[in-house]
UniProtKB/TrEMBL annotation:
Residues 131-134 are annotated as: G4. Monomer. Residues 15-182 form the Era-type G domain. This is GTPase Era. It is a peripheral membrane protein.
């Protein structure tokens, strides 16, 4: 294929892909993400276990777009069958991204790290990041530590970094780059705050539905943003919760509309915290019978 138009973005050679940053608590995942993106990115409630992936940040550099996601729901604390099932789901979700970055701390390998090791995907390349190298007292200790961990899995690359000091973070990006598939950019370069903001808004509403509806949450329920306007320091957002059946509507609305009110009010508070501005949020419930089967409906909801 030839590109006859000079000076236009040649999307043939553009690479865009999803990168999951995982690791036990406190290893420095958020710090690393912020160092890679080069700006502070707020993250929605850590309680959310409602999606397989949540977009944390997007970086567009040269001809590459990195979409960093995390995979909520990973459990290292307790054993048990439920956690095994949850973690199996996490493992499957990790199989769906293009690259996994597993963060550990230099000189510290705990039982929680062992638990993460067990869910590393076989089919997705995994880069091991050994973080906090700035804290090393004796640099010579690092190599034997890294060799020990390296023997545990077939890592694509192993990169010692300091997320805090920004040491080797560009090297990490260079190593991720060839792992991302040829794709046009999914986000506009200067759109990092806008479309993901809309997306995050739907995720926040979804999280509230899941959290406040418990086991009753209707199968196939989804959220779309019907209006998203910025007016100075105010976001005017209208979100529709779409359910498959009339009977499902009641589950979301609750007795005397109480549940929908709470969904709406808690979602608004989270949005204000996350977006750092006032939010005027309207939420309603719509029935779209059989939407899950209809291609046009799926497209209108942003699924291709
Ligand atoms: N010295 C040093 N400290 C770091 C580095 N990266 C992160 N930290 C510190 O480690 C602590 C945890 O960092 P976070 O980025 O919150 O870790 P996390 O993995 O996102 O933690 P969770 O949100 O609990 O999963 C913070 O106090 C960071 O400042 C590093 O490269 N060097």
């Amino acid at each position: 294929m030839t590109n006859t138009e000079p000076n236009t973005l040649n999307t043939d050679t553009f690479h865009t892909g999803f990168v999951a940053i995982i690791g036990r608590p406190n290893v420095g995942k958020s710090t690393l993400m912020n160092a890679l993106i080069g700006q502070k990115v707020s993250i929605t409630s850590k309680k959310a276990q409602t999606t397989r992936h949540r977009i944390n940040g997007v970086l567009t550099q040269d001809n590459t777009q990195y979409i960093f996601v995390d995979t909520p729901g990973f459990q290292t604390k307790h054993g048990g069958a439920l956690n095994r099932v949850l973690n199996r789901n996490v493992s499957q979700a990790l199989g769906e991204v293009d690259a996994v970055v597993w963060v550990i701390e230099a000189m510290k390998f705990t039982s929680q790290d062992e638990a993460v090791l067990k869910i590393l995907p076989e089919s997705t390349p995994v880069i091991l990041v050994v973080n906090k190298v700035d804290e090393l007292e004796r640099k010579n200790d690092l190599l034997p530590f890294v060799q020990k961990v390296a023997a545990k899995f077939n890592f694509k690359e192993i990169i010692p970094v300091s997320a805090k000091k920004g040491i080797q973070t560009q090297v990490l990006l260079e190593q991720i780059k060839p792992l991302l598939p040829e794709n046009p950019p999914f986000f506009d370069e200067d759109d990092i705050t806008d479309r993901p903001t809309r997306f995050l808004a739907t995720e926040i509403v979804r999280e509230k539905i899941f959290r406040l509806s418990g086991d009753e949450v209707p199968y196939g329920c989804t959220v779309t943003i019907e209006l998203f306007e910025e007016e100075g320091n105010l976001y005017r957002i209208a979100a529709a919760i779409i359910v498959e059946r009339e009977a499902h509507k009641g589950m979301i609305i609750g007795k005397d509309g109480e549940r929908l009110k709470r969904i709406s009010s808690e979602a608004r508070q989270d949005m204000e915290k996350l977006f750092g501005c006032k939010v005027f949020l309207e939420v309603w419930v719509k029935v779209r019978s059989g939407w899950g089967d209809s291609e046009a409906s799926l497209r209108s909801l942003g699924y291709e």
